[in-house]
Amino acid sequence: MAQRVVTVFGGSGFVGRNIVRVLAQQGWRVRAAVRRPEWASFLQPMGDVGQVVPVQTNVRNAASVAAAVAGADAVVNAVGIFFQRGKQRFDIVHAQGATNIGAAASAAGVKSLVHMSGIGIDESDSQSHWLRSKSAAERAIRESFPRATILRPSIVFGPGDTFFINLASLARMMPRMPAIGGDRFKFQPVYVGDVAAAVAACLNDPATAGQVYELGGPKVYTMRQLAELVLQATGRSDKRIAYMPLSLTKLLGLGAQFLPRPPFTYDQAYMLERDSLAHPGLPGLAELGVAPTAAEVVLPAYLEHYRPAGTYSTTTA
User: Fold this and answer.
1) How many structural domains are present in the chain?
2) Does residue 204 sit within a domain?
3) Shared-domain flag, residues 159 and 121
4) CA–CA separation, 59 vs 76, rounded Å?
5) Is the per-residue pLDDT at 317 higher than 50?
6) Is 133 contained in some domain?
7) Buried b (16+ CB within 10 A) or exposed e, 31-63
8) Higher pLDDT, 121 or 194
9) Which of these three, 92, 121, 147, is where a domain ends?
10) 231 in Cβ contact with 303 (< 8 Å)
11) In this structure, are 143 and 223 located in the same domain?
12) What is the rounded CA–CA span in Å between residue 288 and residue 94?
């Protein structure tokens, strides 16, 4: 039996690399379509010799995308950026990239396509460029590849994430742990390994074609509760938590977004001003046969070096 081929756009990113790992474990031949193949060599040991191959691809270029898709049985679009620099603009990378990927997949006769989106995508939202571009990307993928499966995860966590690692950095540096918005808004963080398993489940089940799945973890938290989790995981439970108003967070984000690699931006601050919960009327991890992993199980393992004495601290979470 011939080995199935899948092209994973954004395969070297935080979510993409986990998708590559799971698909390689399931026996897929994986093309990791990335802008800088020389920076994606770490993906190759995830499979057997020659099973995982980084290929140079620019989603802004239709010919480049078509070359990466040619001969593939399946495609995953895990491309995403959280801040804009140079030619890397939200509208181009998210929306135009989705158009190019969907059109190339249709022309190549690809059997299945999974598109990574996000909870809270709302076309009418006029304040967040990121949200608007992700909404346009969903529309673009539907128009160019109507059978695409769309996955909308909540905040994705796991080794290498930015959300919890940024919080752990604040816990280490600040005299008090800031909790943006306090208890006003709710979040349902989902483990990156569960997201990758959901992608694999969709590729393996034709019945998921054309469906939308919202992926959330097993627990719902407020920002204050997430701050408490980070303090516990980093051995700093005695540190006090301070409420941080959203207006101040947005103001800081306006300034931070001009840094070379901003820790957060105005857009990200704005996205914290809403609940990030899986819609009860849409299918999710359970319908894909994936048991969700709680943040308490995973956080201590990759936040350990943010403890007072680092990885070898005698303080345990």
Assistant:
1) 2
2) no
3) no
4) 13
5) no
6) yes
7) bbbbbebeebeebbebbeeebbbbeebbbbebe
8) 194
9) 147
10) no
11) no
12) 25
Q: What is the CATH number of the domain that holds 296?
A: 3.90.25
139 and 21 together in one domain: yes
Do residue 12 and residue 108 come from a single domain?
yes
DSSP string, the chain: -PPPEEEEETTTSHHHHHHHHHHHHTT-EEEEEES-GGG-GGGGGGSSTTTEEEEE--TT-HHHHHHHHTT-SEEEE----SS-BTTB-HIIIIIIHHHHHHHHHHHTT-SEEEEE--TT--TT--S-HHHHHHHHHHHHHHHH-TT-EEEEESSEESTT-SHHHHHHHHHHHSSSEEEETTTSSEE--EEHHHHHHHHHHHHH-GGGTT-EEEE--S--EEHHHHHHHHHHHTT-TTSPEEEE-HHHHHHHHHHHTTSSS-S--HHHHHHTSS-B---TTS--TGGGT-----HHHHHHHHSGGGSTTGGG-S---
pLDDT in tens, 163-178: 999 999 999 999 999 9
Q: Flag whether 203 is in a domain.
A: no
Query: Over 60: is that where the pLDDT of 128 sits?
Result: yes
What span, in angstroms and rounded, lies between the C-alpha atoms of 157 and 15?
9
User: What is the pLDDT, as a whole number, of residue 123?
Assistant: 55
- Take residue 146 and report the two structure tokens written for it: 């109507």
Q: What mean pLDDT is predicted for residues 52-81?
A: 97
Same domain, 171 and 313: yes
Which pLDDT belongs to residue 314? 57
Residue 211 lies in a domain: no
**Residue ranges making up the domain that contains 63:** 5-147
Across 32-46, 86-100, 180-194, the highest mean pLDDT is recorded for 32-46
